Amino acid sequence: xxxxxxxxxxxxxxxxxxxxxxxxxxxxxxxxxxxxxxxxxxxxxxxxxxxxxxxxxxxxxxxxxxxxxxxxxxxxxxxxxxxxxxxxxxxxxxxxxxxxxxxxxxxxxxxxxxxxxxxxxxxxxxxxxxxxxxxxxxxxxxxxxxxxxxxxxxxxxxxxxxxxxxxxxxxxxxxxxxxxxxxxxxxxxxxxxxxxxxxxxxxxxxxxxxxxxxxxxxxxxxxxxxxxxxxxxxxxxxxxxxxxxxxxxxxxxxxxxxxxxxxxxxxxxxxxxxxxxxxxxxxxxxxxxxxxxxxxx
Length: 297
What we know:
46% helix; 11 helices; TIM Barrel
């Protein structure tokens, strides 16, 4: 019998107002450089396109290792996220660097293939060297109220992950309400997700500050009741350093210093890396670099 979390009402007006307040905060100049570097170290550098190739993945891995060749003291990113067929290649390049290899799985981005095929895909990427697996929940089951199926599938994927960490993508742009976002977060956490993640990046809207705040609150409540820390990954739509810093302020005020680490917070936005590099470079040279000087290739 299903004994998962029950629906909890979210005060949408209050959440939206509080989320908006973080975009109006000022950051002391002496703190900004450290926060920009922290944000860079929290980024999952990602390529999930139909035109992906071995050459592009190799270039992405080099970008992960050296975000800006003119600033050798910059931190590396947290992870490189690729499609399953490129996991072995990324793992061979990044072995021993400390950069994680993440793979989307479970019939990303739809999650609509039979469960047995989704689990086989998960087992395959872990065997190829994935440290992290990004799965998508069954939104059709969730929106029809079939929460036991959603929970059961997450648990099955978690088991298939073995030693790899599981990030559970809620695809919040399809969940319709903040009440649904909260319930989906609670189900994903209770079912064994190591991280909860907003979006695939293929659906609009992707990450938003109100959605992320609701998910952070679910993580906070879980920690309060169990002492277990769950990670958070807003993904999609965070392309500017200024916005990333607003997210970090929200993270700090909601969950505290313990979550200010790549082990518990990630940004899923590859274009963000370029703007972080430009902003850090600007702070040292007073010159704002153009987009074409910080390409992902």
